[in-house]
Write a structure and sequence with these properties.
2 copies of one chain form a homodimer.
Chain A: H1 10-13, H2 18-22, E1 25-30, E2 45-51, E3 54-59, E4 65-71, E5 76-78, E6 86-90, E7 95-101, H3 102-111, H4 113-138, H5 142-156, E8 165-166, H6 171-178, H7 182-194, E9 198-200, E10 205-208
Antiparallel strand pairs in A: 1-7, 2-5, 2-7, 3-4, 3-6, 8-10, 9-10
Chain A binds a DNA duplex (30 and 30 nucleotides) through α7.
DNA sequence: ATGGTGTCTTGATCGAGATCAATGAAATGA
DNA sequence: TCATTTCATTGATCTCGATCAAGACACCAT
């Protein structure tokens, strides 16, 4: 379960539920950096990303900007119980979402098990992602954080035919998601490239070697101690 | 919403729903360090902590032990979409939970709005806590992490009449929750004590000054540079 | 008593990552 | 076209926290 669940809902994407859902849908478009909704209305809707990229951001008084989550095309999300200083913004131009009243949708779900399933899956996936995020922030080194993040994006984003995946977000966004500085993210990417873990085609398009589940140490352990003795 | 929500459900604790829920309840007791359920059955139930303390733990192959969440007396939780290597354990002896079949409880909730409200609140609180946890792990310094953690515990745990709060968990548990080493947690507590932010009565019982929302720097910025010039 | 174990604290050292700074590359707009 | 701004990379320095190490303290059993 959880991590192995489908990325998006096949049945929905085949269009089988469009007819039922379409009349409840309101289209919301936003360009780069714009919020998609007034904060106090956020929790009243279910959202479905149709194109572009969306981020859930929390601003600190100090100016630090914590990105809690990204939502990619075909993903559903709902903003239950989030803190008041959280906003949902478009990351890039041309971002479009479908907006559905929660009351309407959840009433539909009582009658229609397929719709109920979409909502339940979306919830579970949001929970699972939050846990992965906690785990990733918890005790990992910067290079591992970045590698795991890229691997997650590879799984959630469509790849080009040549296997390269275009990332829709900037280094700053990655840094604010991973709790690192931009410089550290950039350095981590350079290290991963030098280790042939990722291959670049331009700055934001890359191919990620996956299946590496182990941590691999960044540096070899230092020599015991530079005492008087020296190697010939 | 979210952070300001009631800690536990008043109506439930007044016993008004006991009569309805009691027949679905199975009592589960566990002593220190014991799991409360087989991992593969975890997601089949709603849980209600009645006494003691429970932790949600994820073990890494390397031996690191990430504590995702604590659940305190009177709190409900459900294990949707969690990863397979997660276990729920009692933190201390004498931990007792009520276990309710999800199917049963959620069918009850369709008819009974009060029960539905309990479950919805519990879900929202779990989401909100996960977000707070992410935020706390994200970019904070160790002393701030510990202070915020203590403040959360103050809000969730009952205080003694003299205002001191007994913490049910060890330094190791705090460390594994906050992504720090035990030593760093211990040092952070010493620093907070020396700053009069917390006051101790024994190692695990303390009073926390709250309302501090600001970060306060650990060290004063270093002098510009020890150049040739020297202060008289 | 004595030893054992688990928990908590403090000290010393070192490395990973933040920060400051500079430069380069790419997008945007006049 | 050039100017401006945003984004990305790399280097140098310094600090926070991990790690290793030792000791204090409580609790238990024998």
């Amino acid at each position: 379960m959880g991590r192995r669940a489908a990325i998006h809902d096949r049945a929905f994407d085949r269009g089988e539920f469009h007819s039922q859902l379409a009349k409840w849908r309101t289209s919301v478009a936003a360009s780069k950096g714009q919020p998609i909704c007034q904060p106090n209305r956020l929790a009243d809707y279910w959202w479905h990303v149709e194109s572009g990229l969306v981020r859930q951001v929390r601003l600190q008084s100090s100016g630090l900007r914590c990105i809690h989550e990204f939502f990619l095309p075909h993903e559903w999300f709902v903003c239950d119980g989030i803190s008041e200083d959280t906003v949902i913004e478009a990351v890039c131009d041309g971002t479009v979402l479908g907006r559905y009243g929660r009351f309407d949708l959840e009433r539909l779900a009582v009658e229609d098990v397929a719709i109920a399933q979409i909502l339940r899956d979306a919830r579970n996936r949001q929970t699972a992602r939050a846990e992965e995020h906690i785990f990733n922030l918890w005790h990992r080194r910067s290079v591992e954080k970045v590698r795991v993040f890229l691997d997650q994006m590879r799984a959630r984003l469509p790849a080009r035919s040549d296997g390269f995946t275009p990332l829709p977000m900037s280094r700053y966004d990655m840094a604010d998601y991973l709790g690192l500085s931009v410089e550290t993210v950039s350095r981590a990417l350079s290290i991963l490239r030098s280790r042939r873990v990722v291959e670049f085609d331009g700055v934001r398009t890359l191919k990620i070697a996956h299946g590496l589940d182990d941590h691999f140490p960044l540096f070899v352990p230092p020599p015991p101690r530079a005492s008087g003795a020296r190697v010939a």
